[in-house]
């Protein structure tokens, strides 16, 4: 995008957001803004995920590259315990699938005792770390540049049908064993959609879904709801912004414009995700060395469609294109009833999560054939499930126990 257009976009969107933020909302985001405000100026990791985060903690790690059917090159990391060796790793494979604006580093941002990726490796699991298209640990496309708008022509629908599907098939082909899945937030949308496909479900042993999302009709995050109701996603698309990257020049300038003189952007994270009980504020600077990662504007638009319409459906292109692509006026829904009753599910949800609302979660449960094992953490917000300092006893031990109870490590 040319610089004059970028400047116009920043000015218009910043003014728009400033107008949305009433004193009521501004009061809610008033504690910790310097961190979020400066995120675009922080260093970007320069090495591989193995070299940056995993091997320095003493764990064996190898980098893998796989190609999706639509040409994207994804990064996968394979991790074993500090006492293990990747060449002799015998535990069942577990794929960790991150959420929106995150990547595989999210599972390793706390200490080895507090991070899901390290805990599972120490428990003897064969840990595989997923990174969807567009994130910094993936590797582009076989023909498209990241500067090409077509590179960003996807939503979580493609992440489920291509990225996650390819990861699962790749791990199964390497290990000859059914795959356990751990998903967080967008990673659960991807997982639930993928598991409605028989070829995926038959090679998955069990899934642990943290902050499980399929329906988004009842989210309570006021900042997000204002953006949804005012169709900010459509505005950004109309302006020709296809990549959402808060570390880009326009992203940094946008945050500058919003936070400098318009509102106090303290604790913006809380205004979006809900109050997190167990977030380690002393590590925020470290977290921001890695987060957030880019995503596509189309992805955000798809999520906002779900909030507005209360559906768990494919991307809505409008009547004419829907007819062409789907053969019907409205996009088809993902049928949660197609997930096999025999597939074990653990679902962990929090009482302070403003994105994965309890009412929407109950809607999901009603459509499933099975009765998942539930973990309810009353004080947890959306991000606690990734970086809580109490996660080991609150969550990780439960996930390990659940997987072990189904740990047949099935082989073909």
UniProtKB/TrEMBL annotation:
InterPro entries: AB_hydrolase_fold, AB_hydrolase_lipase, Lipase_euk
Keywords: Hydrolase, Lipid degradation, Lipid metabolism, Signal
Stretch forming the signal peptide: 1-22
Segments forming domain Partial AB-hydrolase lipase: 52-110
Family, similarity comment: Belongs to the AB hydrolase superfamily. Lipase family.
Protein name: Lipase
Originating species: Prunus mume (Japanese apricot)
Lineage, highest ranks first: Eukaryota, Viridiplantae, Streptophyta, Embryophyta, Tracheophyta
């Amino acid at each position: 995008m040319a610089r004059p257009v970028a400047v116009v976009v920043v000015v218009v969107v910043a003014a728009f957001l400033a107008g949305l933020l009433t004193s009521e909302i501004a009061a809610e985001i008033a504690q910790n803004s310097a961190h979020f405000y400066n995120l675009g100026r922080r260093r970007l990791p320069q090495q591989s995920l193995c070299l940056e985060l995993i091997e320095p903690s003493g764990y064996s790690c190898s980098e893998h590259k796989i190609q999706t059917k639509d040409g994207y090159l994804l990064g996968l990391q394979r991790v074993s315990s500090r006492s293990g060796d990747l060449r002799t790793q015998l535990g069942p494979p577990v794929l960790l699938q991150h959420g929106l604006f995150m990547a595989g580093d999210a599972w390793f941002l706390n200490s080895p005792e507090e991070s899901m990726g390290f805990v599972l490796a120490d428990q003897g699991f064969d840990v595989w770390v997923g990174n969807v298209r567009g994130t910094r640990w993936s590797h582009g496309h076989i023909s498209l540049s990241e500067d090409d708008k077509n590179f960003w022509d996807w939503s979580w629908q493609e992440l489920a049908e291509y990225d996650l599907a390819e990861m699962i098939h790749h791990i199964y082909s390497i290990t000859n064993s059914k795959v356990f899945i751990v998903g967080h937030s967008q990673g659960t949308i991807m997982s639930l959609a993928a598991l409605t496909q028989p070829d995926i479900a038959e090679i998955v042993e069990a899934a642990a879904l943290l902050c499980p999302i399929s329906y988004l009709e009842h989210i309570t995050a006021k900042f997000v709801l204002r953006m949804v109701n005012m169709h900010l996603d459509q505005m950004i698309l109309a302006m020709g912004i296809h990549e959402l990257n808060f570390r880009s020049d326009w992203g940094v300038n946008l945050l500058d414009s919003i936070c400098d003189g318009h509102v106090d952007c303290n604790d913006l994270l809380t205004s979006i995700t809900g109050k997190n009980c167990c977030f380690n504020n002393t590590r925020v600077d470290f977290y921001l060395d890695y987060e957030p990662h880019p995503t596509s504007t189309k992805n955000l638009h798809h999520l906002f469609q779900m909030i507005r319409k209360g559906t768990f459906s494919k991307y809505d292109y409008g009547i004419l294109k829907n007819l062409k692509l789907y053969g019907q006026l409205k996009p088809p829904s993902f049928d949660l009833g197609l997930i096999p009753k025999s597939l074990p599910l653990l679902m962990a949800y929090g009482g302070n999560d403003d994105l994965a609302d309890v009412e929407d979660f109950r809607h999901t449960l009603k459509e499933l054939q099975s009765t998942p094992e539930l973990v309810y953490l009353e004080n947890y917000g959306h991000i606690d499930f990734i970086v809580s300092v109490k996660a080991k006893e609150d969550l990780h031990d439960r996930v390990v126990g659940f997987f072990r109870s189904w740990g047949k490590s099935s082989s073909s």
